[in-house]
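Justification of computing resources. Each target in the renewal requires a structure prediction run like the one illustrated here; the chain below, 447 residues long, is used simply to show the kind of job we budget for.
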Amino acid sequence: MLKVSTVIRQAATASSRPTTVENCRHFSTTNYRFNSNHYELVIVGGGAGGASLSNYFGRRVKSVAVIEPHDTHYYQPLWTLVGAGISKLEQSAKPMAAVLNTKNWIKDKVGQFDPQNNSVVLESGKQIKYEYLIIAPGIKLNYNQIKGFPEAFDTPGIGSNYSPEYVHKTKAAIQRFKGGDAIFTFPNTPIKCAGAPQKIMYLADDYWEKHGLKSKTKTNFNTSLGVIFGVKKYADTLSSIISERGLNVNFKHNLIEVKPEKQEAIFEKLDSELNPKETVTKHYDFLHVVPPMSAPDCVRTNKLLVDQAGWLNVDKDTLQHKDFKNIFGIGDCTNAPTSKTAAAVACQIGIVGRNLTQVMQGKEPKSIYNGYTACPLVVGRGKCVFAEFDYNAQPLETFLFNQAKPRRSMYIMKKDIIPFMYFNLMLNGYWEGPGFFRKALRLGMGR
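Resulting C-alpha coordinates:
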Protein backbone atom coordinates (compact mmCIF):
# COMPACT_ATOMS: atom_id res chain seq x y z
CA MET A 1 0.00 0.00 0.00
CA LEU A 2 1.46 3.38 -1.04
CA LYS A 3 1.76 6.13 1.52
CA VAL A 4 -0.48 9.15 0.95
CA SER A 5 2.53 11.45 0.51
CA THR A 6 3.90 9.20 -2.23
CA VAL A 7 0.53 9.09 -4.00
CA ILE A 8 0.28 12.90 -3.98
CA ARG A 9 3.75 13.26 -5.52
CA GLN A 10 2.83 10.77 -8.22
CA ALA A 11 -0.44 12.56 -8.97
CA ALA A 12 1.43 15.72 -9.92
CA THR A 13 3.08 13.94 -12.84
CA ALA A 14 0.70 11.08 -13.64
CA SER A 15 -1.30 12.85 -16.36
CA SER A 16 -0.91 10.23 -19.07
CA ARG A 17 -3.35 7.70 -17.62
CA PRO A 18 -6.97 7.73 -16.43
CA THR A 19 -7.10 9.45 -13.05
CA THR A 20 -8.22 7.44 -10.03
CA VAL A 21 -9.28 8.69 -6.61
CA GLU A 22 -5.90 7.63 -5.22
CA ASN A 23 -3.92 9.81 -7.62
CA CYS A 24 -6.17 12.90 -7.46
CA ARG A 25 -4.39 15.98 -6.09
CA HIS A 26 -5.44 16.74 -2.49
CA PHE A 27 -6.52 20.38 -2.75
CA SER A 28 -5.71 21.25 0.85
CA THR A 29 -2.12 19.94 0.72
CA THR A 30 -0.86 21.28 -2.60
CA ASN A 31 1.10 24.54 -2.80
CA TYR A 32 0.71 24.74 -6.58
CA ARG A 33 0.31 28.29 -7.89
CA PHE A 34 -2.69 28.37 -10.23
CA ASN A 35 -2.94 30.88 -13.08
CA SER A 36 -5.09 31.86 -16.08
CA ASN A 37 -4.15 28.65 -17.88
CA HIS A 38 -4.36 26.26 -14.93
CA TYR A 39 -7.15 26.00 -12.37
CA GLU A 40 -7.91 23.73 -9.50
CA LEU A 41 -11.49 23.28 -10.77
CA VAL A 42 -12.83 23.90 -14.27
CA ILE A 43 -16.58 23.82 -14.94
CA VAL A 44 -17.69 23.45 -18.55
CA GLY A 45 -21.09 25.04 -19.04
CA GLY A 46 -23.02 27.92 -17.48
CA GLY A 47 -26.45 26.31 -17.51
CA ALA A 48 -28.42 25.15 -14.48
CA GLY A 49 -25.79 22.68 -13.26
CA GLY A 50 -22.67 24.62 -14.19
CA ALA A 51 -23.85 27.97 -12.83
CA SER A 52 -25.09 26.44 -9.56
CA LEU A 53 -21.87 24.54 -8.98
CA SER A 54 -19.78 27.61 -9.80
CA ASN A 55 -21.42 29.26 -6.79
CA TYR A 56 -21.26 26.12 -4.64
CA PHE A 57 -17.51 25.68 -5.22
CA GLY A 58 -16.80 29.41 -5.48
CA ARG A 59 -17.25 29.48 -1.70
CA ARG A 60 -15.07 26.42 -1.14
CA VAL A 61 -12.28 26.33 -3.73
CA LYS A 62 -9.83 29.16 -4.41
CA SER A 63 -9.23 28.59 -8.12
CA VAL A 64 -12.40 28.00 -10.17
CA ALA A 65 -13.01 28.75 -13.86
CA VAL A 66 -16.20 28.42 -15.90
CA ILE A 67 -16.11 27.91 -19.66
CA GLU A 68 -19.33 29.27 -21.18
CA PRO A 69 -19.73 31.08 -24.54
CA HIS A 70 -23.14 32.70 -24.09
CA ASP A 71 -24.09 36.07 -22.59
CA THR A 72 -27.54 35.02 -21.39
CA HIS A 73 -28.63 32.33 -18.95
CA TYR A 74 -32.16 30.96 -19.39
CA TYR A 75 -34.52 29.17 -17.05
CA GLN A 76 -35.75 26.91 -19.82
CA PRO A 77 -38.69 25.17 -18.05
CA LEU A 78 -40.59 28.45 -18.32
CA TRP A 79 -40.61 28.25 -22.13
CA THR A 80 -43.71 26.04 -22.15
CA LEU A 81 -45.61 28.98 -20.68
CA VAL A 82 -43.84 31.42 -23.00
CA GLY A 83 -44.93 29.43 -26.04
CA ALA A 84 -48.48 29.38 -24.70
CA GLY A 85 -48.51 33.16 -24.32
CA ILE A 86 -48.75 33.04 -20.52
CA SER A 87 -45.22 34.15 -19.60
CA LYS A 88 -42.66 36.33 -21.37
CA LEU A 89 -39.26 35.15 -22.63
CA GLU A 90 -37.45 37.87 -20.68
CA GLN A 91 -38.84 36.41 -17.45
CA SER A 92 -36.72 33.32 -18.11
CA ALA A 93 -33.49 35.25 -18.76
CA LYS A 94 -30.66 36.74 -16.73
CA PRO A 95 -27.22 38.00 -17.79
CA MET A 96 -24.70 35.17 -17.57
CA ALA A 97 -22.38 37.42 -15.58
CA ALA A 98 -25.06 37.69 -12.89
CA VAL A 99 -25.35 33.94 -12.30
CA LEU A 100 -21.70 32.81 -12.41
CA ASN A 101 -19.86 33.25 -9.12
CA THR A 102 -16.35 33.39 -10.48
CA LYS A 103 -14.09 36.09 -11.81
CA ASN A 104 -12.62 33.45 -14.09
CA TRP A 105 -15.37 33.30 -16.72
CA ILE A 106 -13.80 32.03 -19.93
CA LYS A 107 -16.15 33.14 -22.68
CA ASP A 108 -15.38 30.47 -25.24
CA LYS A 109 -16.50 27.04 -26.40
CA VAL A 110 -14.76 23.76 -25.68
CA GLY A 111 -13.27 22.31 -28.84
CA GLN A 112 -11.85 19.16 -27.32
CA PHE A 113 -11.39 17.42 -23.98
CA ASP A 114 -8.04 15.77 -23.20
CA PRO A 115 -8.80 13.87 -20.00
CA GLN A 116 -5.57 11.89 -20.12
CA ASN A 117 -3.63 15.14 -19.73
CA ASN A 118 -6.12 16.97 -17.49
CA SER A 119 -6.73 19.67 -20.07
CA VAL A 120 -9.40 21.27 -22.22
CA VAL A 121 -8.70 22.83 -25.62
CA LEU A 122 -10.93 25.77 -26.48
CA GLU A 123 -12.22 26.58 -29.97
CA SER A 124 -9.91 29.60 -29.89
CA GLY A 125 -6.99 27.17 -29.55
CA LYS A 126 -6.15 28.03 -25.96
CA GLN A 127 -5.41 25.14 -23.61
CA ILE A 128 -6.81 25.15 -20.07
CA LYS A 129 -5.37 22.77 -17.46
CA TYR A 130 -7.31 21.51 -14.47
CA GLU A 131 -6.97 19.34 -11.39
CA TYR A 132 -10.70 18.58 -11.31
CA LEU A 133 -13.34 18.95 -14.00
CA ILE A 134 -17.13 19.21 -14.00
CA ILE A 135 -18.73 18.63 -17.40
CA ALA A 136 -22.10 20.40 -17.69
CA PRO A 137 -22.59 21.78 -21.23
CA GLY A 138 -26.22 20.68 -21.46
CA ILE A 139 -27.74 19.14 -24.56
CA LYS A 140 -27.62 19.89 -28.30
CA LEU A 141 -30.75 20.56 -30.36
CA ASN A 142 -30.51 18.89 -33.77
CA TYR A 143 -33.30 20.50 -35.79
CA ASN A 144 -31.28 19.87 -38.95
CA GLN A 145 -31.78 16.11 -38.54
CA ILE A 146 -35.38 16.63 -39.63
CA LYS A 147 -35.42 17.25 -43.38
CA GLY A 148 -36.75 20.71 -44.12
CA PHE A 149 -35.56 22.27 -40.84
CA PRO A 150 -34.63 24.81 -39.66
CA GLU A 151 -35.80 26.58 -42.84
CA ALA A 152 -39.41 25.52 -42.19
CA PHE A 153 -39.55 27.91 -39.23
CA ASP A 154 -39.76 30.73 -41.77
CA THR A 155 -43.20 29.49 -42.79
CA PRO A 156 -46.50 30.00 -40.91
CA GLY A 157 -47.99 27.54 -38.46
CA ILE A 158 -44.77 26.04 -37.08
CA GLY A 159 -43.18 26.58 -33.69
CA SER A 160 -40.94 24.96 -31.09
CA ASN A 161 -40.69 25.67 -27.37
CA TYR A 162 -37.19 24.24 -27.11
CA SER A 163 -35.25 27.25 -28.41
CA PRO A 164 -35.35 30.97 -27.58
CA GLU A 165 -35.13 31.52 -31.33
CA TYR A 166 -38.39 29.74 -32.06
CA VAL A 167 -40.53 29.78 -28.91
CA HIS A 168 -42.25 33.02 -29.97
CA LYS A 169 -43.29 31.26 -33.19
CA THR A 170 -45.27 28.77 -31.10
CA LYS A 171 -47.26 31.56 -29.49
CA ALA A 172 -47.90 33.20 -32.87
CA ALA A 173 -48.95 29.92 -34.50
CA ILE A 174 -51.36 29.06 -31.65
CA GLN A 175 -53.01 32.47 -31.76
CA ARG A 176 -53.27 32.56 -35.58
CA PHE A 177 -54.71 29.06 -35.82
CA LYS A 178 -58.30 29.05 -37.12
CA GLY A 179 -58.97 25.32 -36.95
CA GLY A 180 -57.82 22.26 -38.85
CA ASP A 181 -55.08 19.73 -38.17
CA ALA A 182 -52.78 20.39 -35.19
CA ILE A 183 -49.80 18.09 -34.66
CA PHE A 184 -47.42 17.93 -31.69
CA THR A 185 -44.28 15.77 -31.96
CA PHE A 186 -41.83 13.84 -29.76
CA PRO A 187 -38.52 12.67 -31.36
CA ASN A 188 -36.79 9.30 -31.27
CA THR A 189 -33.96 10.38 -28.94
CA PRO A 190 -33.58 11.23 -25.28
CA ILE A 191 -34.67 14.84 -24.75
CA LYS A 192 -34.68 17.42 -21.99
CA CYS A 193 -37.99 17.89 -20.16
CA ALA A 194 -39.79 14.94 -21.71
CA GLY A 195 -43.16 16.23 -20.54
CA ALA A 196 -42.90 19.51 -22.44
CA PRO A 197 -44.00 18.15 -25.86
CA GLN A 198 -47.44 17.30 -24.48
CA LYS A 199 -47.73 20.23 -22.04
CA ILE A 200 -47.97 22.67 -24.94
CA MET A 201 -50.62 20.45 -26.53
CA TYR A 202 -52.87 20.78 -23.47
CA LEU A 203 -52.31 24.53 -23.27
CA ALA A 204 -52.99 25.03 -26.99
CA ASP A 205 -56.13 22.90 -26.77
CA ASP A 206 -57.25 24.96 -23.80
CA TYR A 207 -56.68 28.21 -25.73
CA TRP A 208 -58.51 26.97 -28.83
CA GLU A 209 -61.47 25.77 -26.77
CA LYS A 210 -61.81 29.16 -25.10
CA HIS A 211 -61.75 30.82 -28.52
CA GLY A 212 -64.43 28.59 -30.03
CA LEU A 213 -62.09 26.52 -32.21
CA LYS A 214 -62.35 23.15 -30.46
CA SER A 215 -65.04 21.73 -32.76
CA LYS A 216 -63.01 22.78 -35.81
CA THR A 217 -59.77 21.19 -34.63
CA LYS A 218 -58.27 17.71 -34.82
CA THR A 219 -55.32 17.46 -32.43
CA ASN A 220 -52.70 14.71 -32.74
CA PHE A 221 -49.79 13.93 -30.44
CA ASN A 222 -47.35 11.96 -32.62
CA THR A 223 -44.74 10.48 -30.31
CA SER A 224 -41.87 8.10 -30.93
CA LEU A 225 -42.56 6.54 -27.54
CA GLY A 226 -44.86 3.62 -26.83
CA VAL A 227 -46.47 5.18 -23.73
CA ILE A 228 -47.83 8.62 -22.91
CA PHE A 229 -45.59 8.92 -19.83
CA GLY A 230 -43.02 6.67 -18.23
CA VAL A 231 -44.55 6.55 -14.74
CA LYS A 232 -47.87 4.67 -14.63
CA LYS A 233 -49.46 6.73 -11.86
CA TYR A 234 -49.20 9.92 -13.92
CA ALA A 235 -49.73 8.19 -17.26
CA ASP A 236 -53.16 7.04 -16.06
CA THR A 237 -54.16 10.62 -15.28
CA LEU A 238 -52.84 11.92 -18.61
CA SER A 239 -54.61 9.16 -20.55
CA SER A 240 -57.90 10.13 -18.89
CA ILE A 241 -57.38 13.80 -19.75
CA ILE A 242 -56.57 12.94 -23.37
CA SER A 243 -59.70 10.82 -23.64
CA GLU A 244 -61.95 13.41 -21.99
CA ARG A 245 -60.70 16.19 -24.25
CA GLY A 246 -60.91 14.19 -27.47
CA LEU A 247 -57.20 14.35 -28.29
CA ASN A 248 -55.51 11.71 -30.43
CA VAL A 249 -52.23 9.95 -29.68
CA ASN A 250 -50.21 8.11 -32.32
CA PHE A 251 -47.47 6.05 -30.69
CA LYS A 252 -44.21 5.06 -32.43
CA HIS A 253 -44.43 7.96 -34.90
CA ASN A 254 -41.15 9.85 -35.47
CA LEU A 255 -41.02 13.07 -37.50
CA ILE A 256 -38.38 12.80 -40.24
CA GLU A 257 -39.37 15.45 -42.78
CA VAL A 258 -41.59 18.48 -43.29
CA LYS A 259 -42.79 19.96 -46.57
CA PRO A 260 -44.02 23.43 -45.60
CA GLU A 261 -45.07 24.36 -49.14
CA LYS A 262 -47.65 21.54 -48.93
CA GLN A 263 -48.15 21.77 -45.16
CA GLU A 264 -47.19 18.12 -44.84
CA ALA A 265 -45.27 16.29 -42.12
CA ILE A 266 -43.78 12.86 -42.79
CA PHE A 267 -43.47 10.38 -39.95
CA GLU A 268 -41.51 7.16 -39.74
CA LYS A 269 -43.49 4.35 -38.10
CA LEU A 270 -41.02 2.90 -35.64
CA ASP A 271 -42.96 -0.32 -35.14
CA SER A 272 -42.87 -1.08 -38.86
CA GLU A 273 -41.07 -4.30 -39.78
CA LEU A 274 -40.21 -3.01 -43.24
CA ASN A 275 -36.71 -1.84 -44.23
CA PRO A 276 -36.73 1.08 -44.74
CA LYS A 277 -39.55 1.61 -42.29
CA GLU A 278 -43.03 2.53 -43.44
CA THR A 279 -43.83 6.23 -43.45
CA VAL A 280 -47.06 8.17 -43.18
CA THR A 281 -47.74 11.70 -44.42
CA LYS A 282 -49.97 14.02 -42.39
CA HIS A 283 -51.39 17.42 -43.30
CA TYR A 284 -50.95 20.14 -40.71
CA ASP A 285 -52.29 23.63 -40.09
CA PHE A 286 -50.33 23.85 -36.86
CA LEU A 287 -47.11 21.95 -36.05
CA HIS A 288 -45.13 22.00 -32.81
CA VAL A 289 -41.72 20.42 -33.37
CA VAL A 290 -39.42 18.89 -30.77
CA PRO A 291 -35.98 18.28 -32.32
CA PRO A 292 -33.81 15.18 -31.93
CA MET A 293 -31.20 15.83 -29.24
CA SER A 294 -27.72 14.62 -28.33
CA ALA A 295 -24.83 15.48 -26.08
CA PRO A 296 -22.88 18.49 -27.41
CA ASP A 297 -20.30 17.59 -30.05
CA CYS A 298 -17.31 18.21 -27.76
CA VAL A 299 -18.65 15.49 -25.47
CA ARG A 300 -20.30 13.16 -27.98
CA THR A 301 -17.23 12.77 -30.19
CA ASN A 302 -14.77 12.09 -27.35
CA LYS A 303 -14.62 8.30 -27.15
CA LEU A 304 -12.70 8.41 -23.86
CA LEU A 305 -15.56 10.17 -22.12
CA VAL A 306 -18.80 8.75 -23.52
CA ASP A 307 -20.76 5.52 -23.61
CA GLN A 308 -21.79 3.80 -26.83
CA ALA A 309 -24.77 6.12 -27.24
CA GLY A 310 -22.60 9.24 -27.01
CA TRP A 311 -23.53 10.45 -23.51
CA LEU A 312 -21.04 11.31 -20.76
CA ASN A 313 -20.29 8.02 -19.05
CA VAL A 314 -20.85 8.56 -15.32
CA ASP A 315 -21.59 6.31 -12.40
CA LYS A 316 -25.34 6.75 -11.95
CA ASP A 317 -25.03 6.73 -8.16
CA THR A 318 -22.11 9.14 -7.60
CA LEU A 319 -22.08 11.04 -10.96
CA GLN A 320 -18.32 10.51 -11.07
CA HIS A 321 -16.90 9.58 -14.47
CA LYS A 322 -16.40 5.84 -14.74
CA ASP A 323 -12.78 6.08 -15.96
CA PHE A 324 -11.48 9.50 -14.95
CA LYS A 325 -12.07 9.92 -11.25
CA ASN A 326 -11.26 13.64 -11.15
CA ILE A 327 -14.15 14.29 -13.56
CA PHE A 328 -17.82 14.60 -12.65
CA GLY A 329 -20.86 15.19 -14.84
CA ILE A 330 -24.17 16.86 -14.16
CA GLY A 331 -27.34 17.47 -16.10
CA ASP A 332 -28.50 16.70 -19.61
CA CYS A 333 -25.15 15.60 -21.09
CA THR A 334 -24.78 12.55 -18.84
CA ASN A 335 -26.05 9.00 -19.24
CA ALA A 336 -27.66 8.93 -15.78
CA PRO A 337 -30.87 6.99 -16.56
CA THR A 338 -33.38 9.55 -15.36
CA SER A 339 -35.50 12.22 -17.02
CA LYS A 340 -33.39 15.23 -18.03
CA THR A 341 -34.94 18.12 -16.08
CA ALA A 342 -33.90 21.15 -14.02
CA ALA A 343 -35.37 19.35 -11.00
CA ALA A 344 -32.97 16.47 -11.58
CA VAL A 345 -30.09 18.93 -11.79
CA ALA A 346 -31.12 20.48 -8.47
CA CYS A 347 -30.77 17.13 -6.72
CA GLN A 348 -27.53 16.38 -8.58
CA ILE A 349 -25.93 19.63 -7.33
CA GLY A 350 -25.64 18.30 -3.80
CA ILE A 351 -24.45 14.88 -4.98
CA VAL A 352 -21.68 16.31 -7.17
CA GLY A 353 -20.80 18.97 -4.61
CA ARG A 354 -20.30 16.53 -1.76
CA ASN A 355 -18.71 13.77 -3.83
CA LEU A 356 -16.20 16.01 -5.59
CA THR A 357 -15.27 17.57 -2.26
CA GLN A 358 -14.61 14.08 -0.88
CA VAL A 359 -12.44 13.22 -3.88
CA MET A 360 -10.50 16.46 -3.41
CA GLN A 361 -9.84 15.32 0.15
CA GLY A 362 -8.51 11.99 -1.07
CA LYS A 363 -11.63 10.06 -0.10
CA GLU A 364 -14.07 7.88 -1.98
CA PRO A 365 -17.37 9.56 -2.96
CA LYS A 366 -20.16 8.48 -0.63
CA SER A 367 -23.28 10.46 -1.60
CA ILE A 368 -25.76 8.45 -3.64
CA TYR A 369 -28.15 9.90 -6.23
CA ASN A 370 -31.50 8.10 -6.34
CA GLY A 371 -32.45 9.43 -9.77
CA TYR A 372 -34.91 12.00 -8.40
CA THR A 373 -36.50 14.13 -11.09
CA ALA A 374 -39.70 16.10 -11.45
CA CYS A 375 -41.99 17.11 -14.27
CA PRO A 376 -44.75 19.63 -13.56
CA LEU A 377 -47.22 18.55 -16.24
CA VAL A 378 -49.34 21.59 -17.05
CA VAL A 379 -52.58 20.17 -18.43
CA GLY A 380 -54.36 23.49 -18.93
CA ARG A 381 -54.22 27.06 -17.78
CA GLY A 382 -54.34 26.89 -13.99
CA LYS A 383 -54.02 23.09 -13.78
CA CYS A 384 -50.90 20.99 -13.19
CA VAL A 385 -50.06 17.36 -12.41
CA PHE A 386 -46.83 17.48 -10.40
CA ALA A 387 -44.92 14.30 -11.28
CA GLU A 388 -41.92 13.35 -9.11
CA PHE A 389 -40.15 10.01 -9.45
CA ASP A 390 -36.87 8.12 -9.20
CA TYR A 391 -34.60 5.88 -11.27
CA ASN A 392 -37.12 3.04 -11.04
CA ALA A 393 -39.98 5.20 -12.38
CA GLN A 394 -41.60 5.03 -8.94
CA PRO A 395 -43.37 8.12 -7.57
CA LEU A 396 -41.22 10.08 -5.12
CA GLU A 397 -43.63 12.83 -4.16
CA THR A 398 -42.90 15.73 -1.83
CA PHE A 399 -46.39 16.59 -0.66
CA LEU A 400 -48.82 14.48 1.35
CA PHE A 401 -51.67 14.79 -1.16
CA ASN A 402 -52.04 12.91 -4.45
CA GLN A 403 -49.87 14.79 -6.95
CA ALA A 404 -51.35 12.91 -9.91
CA LYS A 405 -54.51 14.99 -9.51
CA PRO A 406 -54.46 18.26 -11.51
CA ARG A 407 -54.30 21.15 -9.03
CA ARG A 408 -54.15 24.93 -9.19
CA SER A 409 -51.66 24.97 -6.30
CA MET A 410 -49.21 22.93 -8.37
CA TYR A 411 -49.74 25.27 -11.34
CA ILE A 412 -48.74 28.21 -9.13
CA MET A 413 -45.77 26.17 -7.96
CA LYS A 414 -44.72 25.63 -11.59
CA LYS A 415 -45.41 29.16 -12.82
CA ASP A 416 -44.26 31.33 -9.92
CA ILE A 417 -42.65 29.56 -6.97
CA ILE A 418 -40.14 27.28 -8.70
CA PRO A 419 -38.74 30.03 -10.98
CA PHE A 420 -38.21 32.21 -7.89
CA MET A 421 -36.43 29.35 -6.08
CA TYR A 422 -34.35 28.65 -9.19
CA PHE A 423 -32.97 32.16 -9.54
CA ASN A 424 -32.60 32.96 -5.83
CA LEU A 425 -31.63 29.61 -4.28
CA MET A 426 -30.57 26.99 -6.81
CA LEU A 427 -28.29 29.15 -8.95
CA ASN A 428 -26.59 30.36 -5.79
CA GLY A 429 -25.84 26.77 -4.81
CA TYR A 430 -28.34 26.66 -1.94
CA TRP A 431 -31.04 24.34 -3.32
CA GLU A 432 -30.48 20.61 -3.67
CA GLY A 433 -34.03 19.49 -4.33
CA PRO A 434 -36.96 18.81 -2.00
CA GLY A 435 -35.59 15.69 -0.30
CA PHE A 436 -35.27 17.39 3.10
CA PHE A 437 -38.84 18.67 2.99
CA ARG A 438 -40.17 15.34 1.74
CA LYS A 439 -38.68 13.59 4.76
CA ALA A 440 -39.67 16.35 7.18
CA LEU A 441 -43.31 16.15 6.11
CA ARG A 442 -43.17 12.41 6.83
CA LEU A 443 -41.43 12.89 10.20
CA GLY A 444 -38.13 11.59 8.87
CA MET A 445 -39.60 8.46 7.37
CA GLY A 446 -39.62 7.43 3.70
CA ARG A 447 -37.07 8.11 0.99
